[in-house]
Amino acid sequence: PLLPHSYTQQKKLYPPTLQNTNLSLLDSSGAMVSIDPTMPHNTESSSLVLPSDKEELFQNVLTQVAEQFSRAFKINELKTEVTNRLAMLEKRVELEGMKVVEIEKCRNDIKKLREEMASRNNSNFLEDNKKLTPRRDVPSYPKYHLSKETVEALRLPTFDAWQWEPNEMLSCLEHMYHDLGLVKDFNINPITLKRWLLSIHDNYRNNPFHNFRHCFCVTQMMYSMICLCSLQEKFTQLDILILMTAAVCHDLDHPGFNNTYQINARTELAVRYNDISPLENHHCAVAFQIFSQPDCNIFSNFDPEAFKQIRQGTITLILATDMARHGEILDSFKQKVDNFDYTDEEHVTCLKMVLIKCCDISNEVRPMEVAEPWVDCLLEEYFMQSDREKAEGLPVAPFMDREKVTKPTAQIGFIKFVLIPMFETVMKLFPQIEEAMVQPLRESRDRYEELKQIDDAMNEKKKKRTEHSISCIF
Ligand SMILES: [Zn+2]
């Protein structure tokens, strides 16, 4: 008798107004029981009951409790509510197609709701400082003793990132900073390095593709290119530090929707960065917000001039990962590559930009078993975006449309016209990447072309069968 059923419904009937409520209980004989630690237990044989006039008050107390709970879930509820209202309003625009005034009103309502939703979604971006708060204590991720085999494998583009837990990937990243001599040469506090890496992990979101594992893969590919191309003989250690750090930070807090979406949906990020590489600007800003926390600042021992260089270098590299700038950056590199000059700062910067671009889109360089799951991840993220674009009445890119894309069609053009030309240009400076990186790309292209032929043949058969069944009907 104590718990009224469905007390959540009661909250609408009894708005919570009471502050100091005197509740009393009656025992089975009808005598008043004071509510304090000495009160008798409520058992089945002698249950305590509420006096009938108090029941309403008790309901109200429960209502308040329910309110507290529901507030905690409110954000999700609001999101659903706004989405539902948006769908309803869009339906109404369709149905009431004749009434022009009504349409205009609905449009305005939709616009307002969309803005409200966008601001709600985006308020998570920078105001959510929780993730940026450094961990005060020594990070407790278990120190994995990387085996000799792992340490060796880590240097190769064939490394299989799918086999590792986040903690293990953190240990691998930590190992790379030590192995390249960066910790020693720049006097980086090893504990700060651990805390920084943990904070990096916490600031990647669980997107299908743009997540911490992608960050790890890009950084590991950078590490293997540094080893394979003996970049430490050509570059300064500061350049190596910039290459590695930019790779680690390059997709921080990626929301899972690309720049085109940000711009078309006029999100807070697009507004903040005036449609100019909104995501890359954001990744970079989050990176330096993390460095602004002393506990995570691996550059705390740098003099101001060195910090300025690392900051400028990192910003330049992260901003170079915007694929909208692919043609511009590759063209600029092509003009330098035949007379490449390692003493020319502009040349070196351009090469670093191309290197991070190579690593960022290097999945197809990896063995098929490692590369292929990433295509599924990317398509999952693309489909999520195109579904949302359709729902919001925004333009949809054909390469993201689940009705139009298949794995082979998605990959063939990208490998042929983006990856191979870029890696072949880099090959002019580093012939050793032909075997390790360009050859796997060519093999992957051939494999997807075969898969596409099979797909096409199947579709042809299906089409013929459909045509045949149609001709039978008539
Ligand atoms: Zn990336």
UniProtKB/TrEMBL annotation:
Cofactor or coenzyme needed: a divalent metal cation
Family of the protein in this entry: Belongs to the cyclic nucleotide phosphodiesterase family. PDE9 subfamily.
Reaction it catalyzes: 3',5'-cyclic GMP + H2O = GMP + H(+)
Record organism: Lates calcarifer
Domain spans labelled PDEase: 134-455
Top-level taxonomy: Eukaryota, Metazoa, Chordata, Craniata, Vertebrata
EC number(s) from the headed UniProt entry: 3.1.4.-
GO-annotated biological processes: signal transduction
Gene3D superfamilies named in the record: 3'5'-cyclic nucleotide phosphodiesterase, catalytic domain
Role this protein plays: Specifically hydrolyzes the second messenger cGMP, which is a key regulator of many important physiological processes. Highly specific: compared to other members of the cyclic nucleotide phosphodiesterase family, has the highest affinity and selectivity for cGMP. Specifically regulates natriuretic-peptide-dependent cGMP signaling in heart, acting as a regulator of cardiac hypertrophy in myocytes and muscle. Does not regulate nitric oxide-dependent cGMP in heart.
Pathway: Purine metabolism; 3',5'-cyclic GMP degradation; GMP from 3',5'-cyclic GMP: step 1/1
Catalytic residues in the record: 210 (proton donor)
InterPro entries: HD/PDEase_dom, PDEase, PDEase_catalytic_dom, PDEase_catalytic_dom_sf, PDEase_CS
Molecular function terms, GO-annotated: 3',5'-cyclic-GMP phosphodiesterase activity; metal ion binding
List of residues binding Zn(2+) 2: 251
Cofactor note: Binds 2 divalent metal cations per subunit. Site 1 may preferentially bind zinc ions, while site 2 has a preference for magnesium and/or manganese ions.
Binding site for Zn(2+) 1: 214, 250-251, 360
Positions with a binding annotation for AMP: 210-214, 251, 360, 411
Record's keyword terms, sorted: cGMP, Hydrolase, Metal-binding
Name of the top EC class for this enzyme: hydrolase
Identification of the protein by name: Phosphodiesterase
PANTHER family per record: CYCLIC NUCLEOTIDE PHOSPHODIESTERASE (PTHR11347)
